[in-house]
Design goal:
single chain, Quinone Oxidoreductase, Chain A, domain 1, Rossmann fold, seven-stranded mixed beta sheet, six-stranded parallel beta sheet
Length: about 325
């Protein structure tokens, strides 16, 4: 079968398009999936580069977010049928992430545990379903179970044009929040406006701290005036301390990643002075994916897809993500 295979950590050249990669066979409790769509995440960039402390069994087929059809049932699988449209929860029970600890979705076929399967509603396309798990699942958990975002709150989303960012904007608007979206170009900001963002900040030309203070006032130590209720920050790096400066007393900073750096400078004065709550959110629960598919089925939420590319351009697709040349999600189809 055709598959994109990572043979070593490094740059784009470490991934090869193979035309005769062995087709997998489902074992006990597994199913064979004919992949119809696989969306990419920045995690695929990290996997290609190599991550400290994580030993990836190479070679491996990248791709965490997989949607497709059941092509065959392994021994002991019940309650599912060949031809059924399914989304995979990216975590293989007891083994880890698809596309990292075992072959993922950048191939014509992959195997998965039957426990990973979630039925795709008829009104949701394979591409839309594949866009959901990592980015939207993480955003949903962060903004519902670990947030929660509530009606009338002022929510600043940093990196709002990415997969998690666009999901956060959509979910915050569904919750009835006032959304301030920060991104790096007029084109991206225009698209965020179309998604429902109430206010826009180009952080390449505007100091977002000053912009928030000008609009809402500086956070006050002795009252709850000024600033925003929530900052969504999954970038880290040099955005971290500025994030602390715009949150009102008793407000929250929601964190689910660190794409711009995991060891930023810190300023504890803001955390204790303004009684801030820093809330981490790690991945998703199956219930998050089911809730998101239900929202997608009723079209209350439509995943934002920048483009759909063939498997032959999968290596370039990862590079586009790495270069932050994507708005929302990028999807690869075999």
């Amino acid at each position: 079968m055709r598959a994109l295979v990572l043979y070593a950590h490094g740059g784009p050249e470490t991934i090869s398009l193979e035309t005769d990669y062995p087709e997998p066979e489902p074992g006990d409790g597994e199913v064979l999936i004919q992949v119809r769509a696989c969306s990419l995440n920045y995690h695929d960039v990290f996997t290609r580069r190599g991550m400290p402390g994580i030993k990836v069994p190479l070679p491996v087929v990248p791709g965490l977010d997989v949607a497709g059809e059941i092509a065959a049932l392994g021994p002991g699988v019940e309650g599912w049928r060949v031809g059924q449209r399914v989304l995979l929860d990216p975590i293989y029970p007891g083994k880890g992430l698809m596309g990292e600890m075992r072959d993922g979705g950048l191939a014509e076929y992959c195997t998965a545990s039957a426990r990973q399967l979630i039925a795709i509603p008829d009104t949701v396309s394979f591409e839309e379903a594949a866009a959901i798990p990592v980015a939207y699942g993480t955003a949903h958990r962060m903004m519902t179970a670990n947030g929660p975002i509530e009606r009338g709150q002022k929510v600043l989303v940093l990196g709002a044009s990415g997969g998690v960012g666009t999901a956060a904007v959509l979910l915050a608007k569904l919750a009835g929040a006032e959304v301030i979206a920060a991104a790096s170009s007029d084109k991206k900001l225009a698209r965020l406006k179309a998604l429902g963002a109430d206010h826009l900040i180009d952080y390449t030309t505007t100091d977002f701290v000053r912009a928030i203070h000008d609009r809402y006032g500086r956070p006050q130590r002795r009252s709850y005036d000024g600033g925003v209720d929530v900052v969504v920050n999954y970038t880290g790096g040099d955005t971290w301390v500025p994030s602390l400066k715009v949150v009102k007393r008793g407000g929250r900073v929601l964190v689910c990643g660190a794409t711009a750096g995991f060891a930023p400078s810190e300023d504890l004065r803001y955390i204790w002075t303004f009684e801030l709550r820093i809330i981490g959110s790690n991945s998703w629960a199956r219930s998050d994916l089911e809730a998101l598919l239900a929202l997608a089925a009723t079209r209350k939420l439509v995943p934002v897809i920048d483009r759909v590319l063939p498997l032959s351009e999968g290596r370039e697709a990862i590079s586009l993500l790495e270069d932050r040349a994507v708005f929302g999600k990028i999807v690869v189809v075999p």
